[in-house]
Design a protein that fits this description.
This protein has a single domain, classed as Thiolase/Chalcone synthase (Peroxisomal Thiolase, Chain A, domain 1, 3-Layer(aba) Sandwich), CATH 3.40.47. It is 34% helix and 19% strand. It has 8 helices and 8 strands. The protein has helices at residues 18-26, 47-52, 55-74, 93-103, 112-117, 122-131, 146-161, 237-249; strands at residues 2-11, 84-87, 137-140, 165-171, 190-197, 209-215, 255-258, 264-269. Strands 3-2-4-5-1-6-8-7 form an 8-stranded mixed beta sheet, with helices on both faces. Helix 1 (18-26) crosses helix 8 and helix 3 (55-74) packs across helix 6 (122-131). The longest helix is centred in the N-terminal third of the chain and has 20 residues, at 55-74.
Length: 270
């Protein structure tokens, strides 16, 4: 199946946005992962909701807003109220850790704001409120299989709704109270977003299309140097790099993302 990329966003330490990422790749530079993510305020939210947002929610919303802003600029006549899909392995682990600590106190007291921010679809809820968007909104957690399932789900939703879908995949470091595992051991954050169109609109785009195929073929080793390795969301780094190189010189490479224990999504660009 194929999905046309209409817009891209990326946020991470040392990366302000996708244009910044593209410039670094073309100049054969590496991001400075010690640089803090620039301060961001979701101004599209009402003041009360804006004050309640956490670092996790802001990371997701900033990355979503970048993709949507570019989409609106590139396609001013298109409907910008899009179905959305938010994907994260563990969601807001800082809030989860604080709630676990509170429950263990002699007099447990949990903030109502922390409670509603702890649910996995909190970023999606804030996004839909701020954008006044009544389209379908989904939030999934697929562990180490986040990217493959996110790409597949967004593509299938686009086919179903016959319109583009905004997909946001994001992860932050685990709180110290939560045991780390092999798929999430990094101490930095990473998020990326794509607006994918698998409908029959034949929308012209500045970006290539994704060709997605399910396979049981064991992938060859990926030798891309990934400075954000250790987060499920950051495993998209080779794909984002491949997009830049494909646009620049037509260089293409197949990238495999695990879909489950036995299958992979093989992604190529067209």
């Amino acid at each position: 199946m194929k999905a046309q990329i209409l817009s891209i966003g990326v946020t991470a330490p040392g990366l302000v946005n996708f244009e910044n990422f593209k410039s670094m790749i073309l100049q054969n530079q590496s991001p400075n992962t010690s640089e803090a993510i620039e301060k961001y305020s979701p101004t599209f939210l009402p003041p009360n909701e804006r004050r309640r947002t956490t670092a996790t929610i802001k990371l997701a919303l900033k990355t979503a807003e970048e993709a949507l802003t570019h989409f609106q600029q590139r396609y001013p006549q298109a409907d910008s109220k899009l179905p959305v899909l938010f994907v994260s392995k563990d969601g807001d682990t800082l809030i989860s850790a604080k709630m676990c600590q509170a429950v263990g106190e002699e007099e447990p007291m949990i903030s109502p704001t922390q409670f509603h921010n702890s649910v996995h679809n909190a970023p999606a809820g804030y996004w839909m409120i701020g954008q006044q968007n009544q389209c379908p909104a989904s939030a999934i957690s697929a562990g180490q299989f986040a990217i493959a399932n996110g790409l597949l789900e967004a593509t299938l939703q686009s086919q179903t709704y016959a319109k583009p879908v905004l997909m946001v995949i994001y992860d932050l470091p685990l709180d110290d109270l939560i045991p780390k595992d092999a798929s999430q051991k990094a101490a930095i954050s990473f998020a990326f977003s794509m607006i994918l169109d698998a409908s029959d609109s034949n929308q012209k785009s500045d970006y290539p299309a994704l060709d997605l195929r399910i396979t049981q073929q064991t992938p060859t080793a990926n030798f891309v140097d990934n400075p954000y390795s250790g987060l499920p969301a950051a495993e998209a780094y080779p794909l984002l790099q491949s997009l830049v190189l494909f646009e620049s010189n037509g260089e293409n490479s197949e990238i495999h993302f695990p879909l489950n224990q036995n299958n992979f999504i093989k992604v190529s660009l067209t």
